[in-house]
Design brief:
heterodimer, A: 317 residues, Uridine Diphospho-n-acetylenolpyruvylglucosamine Reductase, domain 3, Enolase-like, domain 1, five-stranded antiparallel beta sheet, globular, B: 799 residues, Aldehyde Oxidoreductase, domain 3, Aldehyde Oxidoreductase, domain 4, five-stranded mixed beta sheet, disordered C terminus
Chain lengths: 317, 799
């Protein structure tokens, strides 16, 4: 593999990184590099710029994009790394590796869906390098940590040279590869709330058991009250729309109910209605719709089981 | 057990340490002083006329040393079979697939070479594209090659026995179909070549190839260089599986760039180029009608096959024969009809891949046997046992089973899996998601004939005894591509000469060393093994002759074992020999001692008396096969065979298959190295599982590959592999060295049908299209249950 030459800027502090981004509006952020470096490879099938007029569109011939701006490496920035537990939420630094998410006892306990999503991503090599923030900012509709983050109600903290802001992950991801990051901004960390009597799960359907892009991914989170009724839930669907889909209908359908089989079935059907899959080379629309319903049922069942077992002893379960 | 000291053991591979510590040199590791980097301009379109090519801007780019198009070539056509030479180094009149080679550059660095490609102006006139192999023969289909009517590269029409008469006698007849998808070889090492051309007109090409011999011939032919001035060297190779078994445009381009620039040139494929060049397994569309008698006797097989070969012939002319001929066994089948068509499309070129043309045909036939067994209420493994051929049988298409442990393989997997007690009896499958399936298969152990018509020896081997004494060097053209042939050469040499393995040095994979047709058709152990055995016996005889002359002991009383000369019945007085040897080695800290003459002393003596001692060996199969057209394809001096049982679990709601275990038994005749035989079996099962479950090259509607990478072209990961059991069956092949025959390809034959049969056992579902993606499996499960597929609006919940 021959990579074209490119410039890498290596800031030693967050402020320096933000200054660099401010000075290079065309800069791209380098975290784990597991997507970026692959994308930098020159295409083998070179563009055909001299195809006669009119054919280029018809034949869908693309034009080679040469990398332009520098890469700003986030490797040295310790404040972007690691997981911290605060009273009611987890703070996950943007360059926390996917492997760290997958093996975190904190996430396994409170935010299981995210740990399961991380464990399902790529291979050990990819998980060791790839980062949580990178997986979110790549904004693929099937991204294995993004889908649970949507279900778990993640909030993204963005920094700019002179300011910071927060945005919900749902509002941040606009389309495949498109995010609401403004010029000069970078994602510093992700905040994920957790609750007592909460359970969550992530299920991924693919053809093989590792190094797989989900044909359908479903993350479900359920929070129960002391009576065992759903007070809050989140179901997010991956690979069945241009972005992960947060199912509002599912949440409404579950709200206030004891999540028994019938309630879960109704919620799964609601999820199917919210999915908007296409047919592509990975799976057909019809299969994906059916699997959304099935995986939602399974993920919710598992999340409810976990929520009940997370309930304090003596509480109704 | 046997009396071998080296053979049949589990000795470590001779290249194990080098590879494990990363010191083994592969072609792309090589950097030569003054070397340029080549790059290839591939066609971005699937079918178009080339109106013009302008290289002037590319040539003007600083650092660019050569820019070549078809105008710079001798326009000589090449391919695999001389009967189907249809490729040129560069496209001349038109491009025939996305990836076809249009031009190439050599530059001082890879980046400049890539930039230069963007400066080559090619004007194309689009032509209608043909992507569907099933449409290729239809009237009005776009024509890929002018000279091939109806886009047919090769058709085969065979009729052995009398199918119509047998049909009238059959009690049950059924027709089934199975189609597959184009594969990728997915070997670890992308193709790479480095060429050097000297002032005396000698060309040396280092290449990641399976067949130095055919690359050698093709380079000489296409570049019009005398054969003796071409040398092809194969460094370590990271797998081939068939796609590296023929000379490629890339190898020719690399050589031509070196000739034009006078500097060494290297080209290494990107993974995407591996997919574009392809030459891997064809896409097959099989339809078979098989008849059976009530007692389980197979009556006849009527077989129709269309193979999508892509844009050029490659191995396809042979593949279409293999797809038919290798159903002649391993069951007694007196009546077989076969109509096969290998067609052109505007896609990358398919060729030979492990199991060659026979894998999907085998899969469908084995599925049919299971369904027929069910119809007559017979256990499918029992049905196979009832029909298996035995050693000495000949197939209806005249293939001789000089050894065949098919029955032993089936019995071995039956016993190991507890088949009789564990598999559901009768026709009412449980449909509980758990299933077991069996299948068998056989394969050639070396093609009976070379690819071009010739009386050539298929391989020669020289064993040169070190003139200083103590060791030997094996000189062979055999291609070690990861399958372990260097280790096989060393083991046979050590066994025959009676010396330790570490005193055998193997030089191989170099066309200057010897002729060897290469690593394809599972030929190396049988053929090069024969030649090595012969060469080692020759060297041994020469050494012992000298010793007999000098000591007066009869030749047949002398033997070499473990590096020492042993004398039968009497003592040998070798004081003068030792004295001379010690005299030659004054000052050496290690000296021979003890009351046995060492191999070092004996071999040194032989040199002193006779000069260089070189043992010679060669192998050429006897004339094989019938007299019908195409009878040569499928012939072999021997046939390996195997049986496997697959066990799996199916998620009945998603269609996902979880493999639980594969138990395989393979008859390799005699295991030269037991660990390597098992490794080949396991590799074959892994590749077979990939083809069964997930492998598929996908195209868009313009003929562009959608998944030309190993992230989206899925082969099994470690997580996907179930426990594998490998049982070695040894039938002692009379035509093989020490009784050995193949394991490299035959072991893949049963995997796909064993999985398909297990899937049916588990679910009642018949899938007619590979690979078995969850979606296809779920659709088939529903069909088996009589459910129709649910549309978007249908939202019934399934319990």
């Amino acid at each position: 593999m021959v990579l074209p030459s490119f410039q890498v800027l290596i800031p030693s502090s967050l402020q320096e990184a933000l200054d660099m981004l401010d000075g290079h509006p065309d800069a791209r952020l380098l975290a784990g590099g597991t997507d970026l470096l692959v994308d930098l490879r020159p295409a083998v099938i070179r563009s055909a710029p001299f195809v006669p007029q009119g054919y280029a569109d018809e034949w869908g011939i693309g034009y080679q994009q040469e990398p332009s701006g520098p890469l700003v490496s986030l490797h040295g920035l310790e404040q972007l790394r690691g997981l911290r537990s605060l009273t009611s939420h987890v703070r996950a630094g943007a360059t926390t590796t996917v492997a760290e998410l997958a093996s975190s006892p904190l996430l396994r306990k409170h935010l299981t869906a995210l740990a399961e999503g991380a464990a399902a991503l790529g291979t050990p090599l990819v998980r060791n390098r790839g980062t949580y923030g990178g997986n979110i900012c790549n904004a693929r509709p099937a991204a294995d940590t993004l889908v649970p983050t949507v279900a778990l109600g993640g909030t993204l903290h963005l920094a700019h040279k002179n300011s910071t802001r927060k945005v919900s992950v749902v509002d941040f991801v606009l389309g495949p590869g498109r995010i609401a990051l403004r010029a000069g901004e970078l994602l510093t960390h992700i905040q994920l709330p957790f609750f007592p009597r909460q359970g969550s799960a992530y299920l991924k359907l693919g053809t093989r058991k590792a190094l797989e892009i989900a044909q359908v991914g479903v993350a479900a989170s359920v929070v129960l009250d002391q009576a065992g009724r759903v007070v809050h839930s989140g179901v997010a669907l991956g690979a069945v729309g241009p972005t992960p889909i947060l199912c509002h209908g599912t949440a409404e359908s579950l709200h206030g109910h004891v999540p028994d089989q019938a309630a879960i079935r109704a919620a799964s059907l609601a999820a199917r209605r919210e999915a908007a899959p296409i047919s592509d080379h990975r799976a057909s629309r019809e299969y994906r719709l059916e699997m959304v319903q099935l995986l939602t049922r399974r993920a919710l069942t598992r999340a409810v089981e976990r929520a009940r077992s997370a309930a304090a002893p003596g509480e109704q379960s | 057990m046997n009396s071998y000291r080296v053979l049949n053991s589990r000795v470590a591979r001779v290249d194990a340490v080098e590879k494990v510590v990363g010191k083994a040199v592969y072609t792309d590791d090589m950097v030569v002083s003054g070397m340029l980097y080549g790059a290839i301009l591939h066609s971005p379109v699937a079918h178009a006329r080339i109106l013009s090519i302008d290289t002037s801007l590319a040539k003007a780019l600083p650092g660019v040393k050569a820019v070549l198009t078809h105008a710079d070539t001798g326009h000589v056509k090449f391919g695999v079979s001389p009967a189907r030479y249809d490729e040129t180094i560069f496209c001349e009149d038109k491009v025939r697939y996305v990836g076809d080679e249009v031009a190439a550059v050599a530059a001082t660095d890879p980046g400049t070479a890539m930039k230069a490609l963007d400066l080559i102006k090619v004007v194309y006139e689009p032509l209608p594209i043909l992507l569907d192999g099933l449409r290729a023969m239809e009237p009005g289909a776009p024509k890929v090659h002018e000279r091939f009517h109806r886009n047919i590269c090769q058709e085969v029409h065979w009729h052995f026995g009398d199918v119509d008469a047998a049909r009238a006698q059959a009690d049950f007849v059924r027709t089934d179909s199975l189609s597959s998808k184009m594969q990728d070889g997915a070997f670890l090492e992308p193709q790479s070549a480095l060429a050097q051309y000297d002032h005396n007109g000698y060309l040396t090409l280092y290449s990641s190839t399976q067949t130095t011999h055919y690359v050698h011939r093709t380079l000489a032919m296409v570049l019009d260089i005398p054969l003796h001035k071409v040398r092809v060297v194969k460094p370590y190779v990271g797998g081939g599986f068939g796609p590296k078994a023929a000379c490629s445009s890339m190898e020719l381009i690399t050589a031509l760039l070196a000739m034009k620039t006078g500097r060494p040139v290297k080209i290494t494929f990107d993974r995407e180029q591996v997919f574009l060049h392809s030459r891997a397994r064809h896409q097959f569309f099989h339809k078979m009608t098989t008849g059976i008698r009530r007692d389980g006797t197979i009556s006849f097989l009527e077989h129709h096959c269309i193979m999508d070969g892509g844009a050029y012939s490659s191995f396809g002319i042979a593949s279409v024969y293999y797809a038919g001929s290798l159903l002649g066994g391993p069951y007694r089948l007196a009546n077989m009809k076969y109509d096969g068509y290998r067609v052109f499309t505007n896609k990358p070129v398919s060729g030979a891949q492990r199991g060659h043309g026979a894998v999907i045909a085998r899969a469908l036939f084995e599925v049919q046997l299971d369904r027929l067994a069910e119809e007559i209420g017979m256990d499918p493994l029992e049905l196979r046992l009832k029909n298996v051929m035995e050693t000495g049988d000949t197939t209806c298409n005249e293939l001789d089973m000089s050894s065949l442990g098919m029955r032993e393989c089936l019995e071995a997997v039956r016993e190991r899996t507890g088949w009789n007690s564990r598999r559901t009896k009768g026709s009412s499958h449980k449909a509980d998601g758990h299933g077991m399936g069996v299948a068998a298969g056989f394969f050639v152990s070396g093609a009976g004939y070379p690819i071009y018509r010739s009386r050539t020896h298929h391989c020669t081997v020289e064993i040169k005894v070190a003139e200083v004494g103590g060791g030997v060097t094996v000189r062979s053209g055999a291609a070690e591509i990861g399958q372990g042939s260097d280790t096989m050469l060393a083991m046979i040499t050590a066994e025959v000469l009676g010396i330790p393995m570490e005193d055998v040095k193997v030089l191989s994979g170099d066309s200057d060393l010897s002729v060897d047709l290469g690593a394809y058709s599972s030929r190396t152990t049988l053929m090069t093994g024969h030649a090595t055995r012969q060469a080692a016996m020759d060297a041994r005889k020469q050494i012992l002759e000298v010793l007999a002359e000098k000591t007066g002991i009869p030749l047949d009383a002398l033997d070499i074992r473990d590096g020492f000369v042993h004398v039968q019945g009497s003592q040998m007085d070798f004081a003068s020999i030792r004295k001379e040897y010690l005299g030659e080695h004054r000052g050496f800290p290690t000296q021979p001692h003890g009351d046995l003459l060492t191999f070092a002393e004996a071999s040194r003596l032989a040199f002193l008396e006779r000069g260089s001692i070189i043992g010679k060996g060669s192998y050429r199969p006897p004339p094989l096969g019938g007299s019908f057209k195409g009878a040569a394809v499928g012939t072999s001096p021997a046939f390996g065979c195997s049986a496997q049982v697959a066990e799996l679990n199916v998620d009945m709601e998603t269609g996902q298959i979880h493999m639980e275990r594969i138990t395989g038994a393979h008859d390799c005749g005699f295991a030269i190295n037991r660990t390597q035989v098992e490794a080949q079996m396991q590799g074959a099962m892994s590749m077979g599982l990939g083809e069964a479950l997930m492998e598929e090259v996908k195209y868009d509607d313009q003929g562009r590959i959608l998944n030309a990478n190993l992230a989206e072209y899925k082969i099994p990961t470690a997580m996907d592999m179930p426990p594998l059991e490998s049982i070695i069956v040894e039938s002692h092949e009379p035509n093989g060295p020490f009784g050995a025959k193949e394991v490299g390809e035959g072991a893949i034959m049963p995997t796909i049908p064993a999985v398909l049969n297990a899937l049916y056992d588990a679910t009642g579902a018949m899938v007619t299209e590979l690979p078995l993606t969850p979606e296809r499996v779920l659709r088939a499960i529903k069909k088996a249950r009589g459910e129709t597929s649910r549309g978007d609006g249908d939202t019934r919940e399934q319990v």
